[in-house]
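Before relying on records like the one below, remember that each one covers exactly one chain. Contacts with other chains, cofactors or solvent are not represented anywhere in the record.
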Amino acid sequence: MLSLKYLVCMPPQSWFLIGVMFLVLAVLPGILFAVLGIGALLLGFMSITTRNKTRSQVL
């Protein structure tokens, strides 16, 4: 109960910092996966376009 009382008595600034920290931790993996997904899509699109170009040149 002592720890709970200590948490309740914490200043609002620390609560704000804790909230920001958790938000950043929640958002970072999402950004990372979004970047990876976009990169994979771009690579696939580029490979498809280059493959089509080479195919037309061969024909």
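The chain has a mean pLDDT of 83.
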